[in-house]
Design brief:
With 440 residues, the chain is α+β, with helices and mostly antiparallel strands. The protein folds into two domains: 41-186, no CATH class; 193-420, no CATH class. 39% of the residues lie in helices and 20% in strands. The strands form five sheets. It has a five-stranded mixed beta sheet, with helices on one face. A four-stranded antiparallel beta sheet has the order 1-3-7-6, with no helix packed on it. Strands 10-11 form a two-stranded antiparallel ribbon. A hairpin with a 2-residue loop joins β10 and β11 (232-239). α1 runs antiparallel to α4, α4 packs antiparallel against α6 and α7 packs parallel to α10. The longest helix is centred in the N-terminal third of the chain and has 31 residues, at 2-32. It is elongated.
Length: 440
């Protein structure tokens, strides 16, 4: 299995590098022809009444685009209005215009005038200066508009009517109201599917080869059982060899491997850290896959949440002991299944573990719902983060009071007989007098 693990890890690294290379190549291609945006000087935006939106296309000439792409919008009489003077004596500046989708203003998505070669009369190519370029990007100020466009749910694509206008005002009219300029924004593009396959590959490889890293870091193969000796409940060390058996279903054998019995139980703190790590990582890739934004995805609250769970896992490792076998405490018991392991110690289910589990599940569901609804990581309330910190502190404080199931001194012998055949010293008893023999 170790050789297969190295092989699969090498394949995963190659796939990962391939996906990253394709994505960054696409990013470089998309940004190579981005015009230099010179924002107009701040003054009152006034649109001449002769301007009308006529056509909207992608850079490749199609009507399908993905978020992060650049689009072109043709506005009638744009070049004439830009070169003529207004009654106030100042010329109209097209760079003041912003993009409108379905009537929603995308703030900070300003226009850039461009020239496009089009086919004119007699099949000749002529220069058309009535075009504006916009990039379909989501900023902090335009996030509300994008949430309204998405409608609160993830859709494979959305059809939008494209318009332009001054900030804070209505979009200018279209030249043909019966056939307005439209674009289809595809959310499930090739970029999304590449990120989706990468997340699935990482999860499957971890389940197949890395799930044992979630187990308690106790001494492998050494456990404890409760016995009553002399009227006192004691923890007796015992060594049990790890057994392997085939799983019943073929698909389980492929993705999970052979079933291993008598292993250490799963650790709640390590599992909690892995849960948030994979959740935030998957959300980051999914948001990037759909929006094309990879710089403004992570939030400070998400990093704080990940830090709380990292501190919890570190504190648990300090309580259990780390490094030297003499300082390590044994695991509580033999693994009884993931859910049972993270909720129980050697005495059974306890409340501090259950509290941590339910709050982690609740906040995790809220996290996933906000990502699906808004295509953005949620901004957690300070009270919610404080509650998560209190739950982690309660778990750490009571974690030290749990029975770990091993004496503080290490076991000298590693043979099974040394644990099974331990002799309990008998208590000294006074000799019983023999009443049948006559006194001397």
């Amino acid at each position: 299995m170790y050789k297969n693990g190295k092989k699969f890890t090498a394949i995963f690294l190659l796939v990962f590098l391939l996906v990253v290379s394709i994505n960054f190549a696409a990013i470089a291609q998309d940004t190579s022809d981005v015009p230099f945006v010179n924002f107009a000087s701040p003054r009152i935006c006034s649109v001449p009444p002769t301007l009308k939106t006529q056509q909207a296309i992608a850079d490749n000439g199609r009507n399908q685009v993905k978020m992060g792409d650049r689009i072109r919008v043709r506005v009638e009489e744009l070049s004439t209005a830009a070169t003529s003077a207004t009654p106030q004596g100042s010329s109209f500046d097209p760079r003041q215009l912003v993009l409108y989708l379905n009537g929603y203003q995308l703030q900070d998505v300003h226009a850039e005038p461009i020239s496009v070669m089009v086919q004119g009369e007699n099949q000749k190519q002529i220069l058309d200066n009535n075009w504006l370029a916009f990039r379909l990007e989501r900023t902090d100020s335009s996030e509300t508009a994008w949430n309204a466009l998405l409608g609160g749910t993830i859709k494979p694509s959305i059809n939008t009517i494209v318009g332009v206008g001054c900030p804070g005002k209505l979009a200018i009219p279209v030249s043909d109201p019966l056939s307005p300029p439209q674009l289809k924004i595809v959310l499930f593009s090739w970029r999304f599917w590449l990120c989706f396959l990468l997340v699935i590959a990482i999860v499957l490889i971890f389940i197949r080869y890395g799930r044992d890293s979630l187990r308690s870091p106790g001494i492998e193969g050494v456990y404890s059982r409760k016995e009553v000796i002399g009227g006192e409940e004691m923890l007796i060390p015992k060594e049990i060899g790890i057994k392997r058996e085939k799983r019943q279903w073929q698909i389980a054998r492929i993705f999970l491997g052979s079933k291993e019995l008598n292993r250490n139980p799963f650790s709640l703190s390590i599992s909690q850290l892995a849960f948030w790590t994979f959740l935030i990582f998957a959300a980051y890739l999914m948001i990037y896959g759909m929006t094309g934004d990879y710089t403004n995805v992570l939030t400070g609250q998400s990093l704080i949440l990940l830090g709380i769970n990292s501190v919890t896992a570190f504190g648990t490792s300090l309580i259990d002991g780390h490094g030297n076998e003499k300082n390590k405490k044994g695991s509580k018991r033999i693994s009884q299944g993931f859910l049972n392991d993270i909720l129980s110690d050697i005495n059974g289910v306890n409340f501090q573990r259950f509290q941590t589990f339910i709050w982690t599940s609740a906040i995790g569901l809220f996290f996933v719902w906000e990502v699906i609804k808004n295509l953005a990581m949620p901004e957690f309330d300070d009270t919610l983060l404080t509650l998560q910190g209190i739950s982690a502190a309660t778990y750490l404080g009571l974690r030290g009071q749990e029975h770990h199931g091993m004496p503080t001194e290490p076991i000298g012998s590693t043979s099974p007989e040394s644990f099974e055949n331990q002799i309990i010293p008998e208590q000294d008893k006074p000799p019983e007098s023999d009443l049948s023999s006559p006194p001397s």
